[in-house]
Amino acid sequence: MLGTAIVTGAASGIGRATAERLLADGWRVVGVDLADDMPRGVETIVGDAAEESTLLAALSAAGDRLDGLVCSAGVPPIGPWDDRAHWDEVLRVDLGGPYAALRLYLPALAAARGSAVLVGSIVGSVEGSVRSPAYAAAKSGLVGLMRSFALIGAPDGVRVNLVEPGAIDTPFDPPRYPPAARPDVPLGRMGTAAEVAGAVAYLLGPDATYVTGTTLRVDGGRTIGTP
Question: Which of 53, 74, 95, 124 is a good FRET partner for 145, with 20 to 30 A between their CA atoms?
Fold first, then answer.
């Protein structure tokens, strides 16, 4: 077994695909989500991934040593852009949740010299959002959060990295174009949740033991292409 990992947002989309990939690779996985429909084999914690009580319940299930953490739970960029309630909720979950998890789990990650991966987006760090400045602000904020905790955790051997998906074919955010025909993506298609999960698994695993404080984009070349 590679170790024990906590995955937030494990019932759907990238979080679910990540939980499935880690299980297949031999990890023990504790999943956190508002829904209980997580992959078979995941130890399920139902609750809000931005609430400390839920996060502590997951840590209790995982134990005192935590080898991996994946923060994938999030609120989609549905807007409207000027809705203050939407702003507050997105910042609470998409940025506050990962901060709370890193803060609470750092001792357990240090005990195992473990690794954390935050799931961000090219929206925010590269692109703005007409629909949801809140989403762009939260995902952009993950860059600074990741870099800061990479520095905080480094003396204890804790690695912290970020993946930034581009257009991914999940129900999280309905696409503007057909998944297999994306004129805005150099590879010509949307990515899959499994492809993002593969990047997460790499960053958590033994092939990335000298990688920390970095951002890995999984976007089919969208951020280098011509609009």
Answer: 53
Are 129 and 139 within 8 A, CB to CB? no
- Examine residue 227 and say whether the peptide bond preceding it is cis (omega within 30 degrees of 0): no
Whole-angstrom distance, CA of residue 43 vs CA of residue 156: 27
**Measured at the alpha carbon of residue 125, what is the angle toward residues 121 and 129, in degrees to the nearest 5?**
75
According to DSSP, the β-strands at 68-71 and 115-119 are parallel
Active site residue 105: no
With 0.90 as the threshold, say if the pTM is over it. yes
- Per residue in 158-195, is it b (16+ CB within 10 Å) or e — as a string? bbbbbbbbbbbbbebbeeeeeeeebeebeeeebbbbeb
Is residue 45 within 8 A of residue 57, CB to CB? The reply is: yes
pLDDT of 146-164, one tens digit each? 999 999 999 999 999 999 9
Query: Band of the pLDDT at 51, cuts 50, 70, 90?
Result: very high
d(CA 49, CA 43): 15
The two three-digit tokens of residue 210, written as one number: 């000298």
Range scoring the smallest mean pLDDT among 2-6, 95-99, 176-180? 176-180
Structure tokens at 80: 């409207």
CA distance 74 to 9: 7
Q: Which is catalytic among the residues 135, 177, 202, 210?
A: 135
Has residue 172 got a pLDDT over 80? no
